[in-house]
Write a structure and sequence with these properties.
Blueprint: H1 4-19, H2 27-45, H3 52-93, H4 101-131
Helix pairs in contact: 1-2, 1-3, 2-3, 2-4, 3-4
């Protein structure tokens, strides 16, 4: 199964819920949850046992999708509501910042997007031991008896 569909669905959860004001206070939870969702969907759609590496990859992809969505939705919201207020607060307090409030919000959003990727990767890793029930050392079914077809019993 392709990792793209689970990554897109998990990333949608990560990005949208992390960008919405007031819901974004739980952005770490949304990010881990989106990675777990992506991992679970990938495991459920896979015909073979999913490894921890596969879980990490699908989680990281979900985090990447979520990080991009977060930047597209969350950064304009932050600039609209917080940019001017932050610059005025800096001016009123007499603090000289090397970066403007707008640039500070952009840098902070980029760091936040990287954190979303890391946490979604962790979520993808967590999904494997939780949802993957197939065992590595499972004994394959025995081969058919030589010379015997279906329904025949060795003499």
């Amino acid at each position: 199964m392709s990792k793209l569909k689970p990554a897109l669905l998990g990333g949608l959860i990560v990005g949208v819920l992390s960008a919405i004001p007031f819901l974004n206070y739980c952005c770490c939870l949304w990010s881990i949850g989106g990675g777990v969702l992506a991992g679970m969907l990938y495991i459920n759609g896979s015909t073979v046992r999913v490894t921890s590496g596969d879980g990490a990859i699908v989680g990281a992809l979900a985090g990447l999708v979520g990080g991009v969505i977060y930047l597209i939705i969350g950064l304009p919201i932050a600039l609209l509501y917080s940019g001017a207020a932050m610059e005025e607060a800096f001016r009123n307090s007499g603090v000289q910042m090397p970066l403007s409030g707008t640039l500070l919000l952009i840098v902070g959003s980029l760091i936040g997007a990287v954190c979303l990727i890391a946490l979604a990767t962790l979520g993808g890793l967590l999904a494997v031991p939780i949802f993957e029930k197939r065992k590595d050392g499972a004994v394959p079914p025995p081969p058919p008896a030589p010379g015997g077809g279906p329904g025949s019993y060795p003499g």
